[in-house]
Amino acid sequence: MRRAPVPGLLLPPPPLLLLLLGLLVLDRGCAAQYSSDLCNWRGSLGQSRLAYPGAISGLTHESHKKDVEQVYLRCSEGSIEWMYPTGALIINLRPNIFPSSSKHWIVCIKPLKDSAGANIYLEKTGELKLLFQDGDHSPTRVHCFSFEQGGLYVEATPQQDISRKITGFQYELINKGTASDLHMVYAPCRPCSDTEVLLAVCTSDFVVRGTIQNVINEEQQQDSVIDVTVNRIYRQKTKIFKAAEEIGVWEGQIKTLLQCGVKPGEGDFLFTGRMHFGEARLGCAPRFKDFQRMYKEAKDKGLNPCEIGPD
């Protein structure tokens, strides 16, 4: 006897139903390649086969040593944390920029402090260039490259016990067309030209007038931390400089490489720079009287790239 249809329930014809089910399966397969957060990825190969991976010890490479997983990220900055590394990861950084404009950007990566368990390579047409070797714990590890140079390939190294290994790094995109960005990455200790200073004033994450109160050299991190008292804030995208209520001034810290040899000095400076991996990094920093001169000269000639009050 033929069963009556359920009222209100419309089923598609069998061929269409099979097609919809097939598309659903495909959609799930594609989504599995993406992190739920398109800026960051955290996971492990074959993680679904481990019920409680955080509680397992004695894991080895044997079960997934040949696995390769694609990771797709869409942001200008973020992080990778690969737990219990086995096999390899192919990191696809595809930010929301036109493909034709990718040549104007560079990628910088910085391994996390306790990163271990894998080597990080730059890969292009099957050739690998080692960027960071497993076990390299240099505190100043940052490497920058262009999209034309290739993509990131992370390969686990043989380990007897991977249960406590996490390979991790941060990444950032920097605009090659911005002079202050390139100065910070490639020549942080070189004095800026007048043109670079004026461009830095227009494009930096922070621009302040202030004095150097103290310089703390961090030998282990190979950085110098500059304590700055601020007289005027022209721009700051994040709260680098904050009011110190007890003394009625604004204060903040800026970092630069130890090799630059920054020392406390009298007089006012114009400090510019960028946020780089969550830290305020020094860009151009001329004496304020020199900035006043170059700003006036450019303004008189109508060559100022942007307006800013010099006093």
Descriptive key words:
311 residues; alpha+beta; Jelly Rolls; OB fold (Dihydrolipoamide Acetyltransferase, E2P); 2 domains; 6-stranded antiparallel β-sheet; 5-stranded mixed β-sheet; 16 strands; elongated; secreted; Meteorin-like; disulfide bond; TIMP-like_OB-fold
What sort of overall outline do the alpha carbons produce when their principal axes are compared?
Answer: elongated
The quaternary structure here is single chain
* Number of E-state strands: 16
Q: Taking Cα atoms only, what radius of gyration do you get, to the nearest Å?
A: 26 Å
Specify the CATH architecture of the largest domain: Sandwich
Spatial strand arrangement across the major sheet = 13-14-12-11-15-16
Q: Which class best fits the helix and strand makeup?
A: alpha+beta
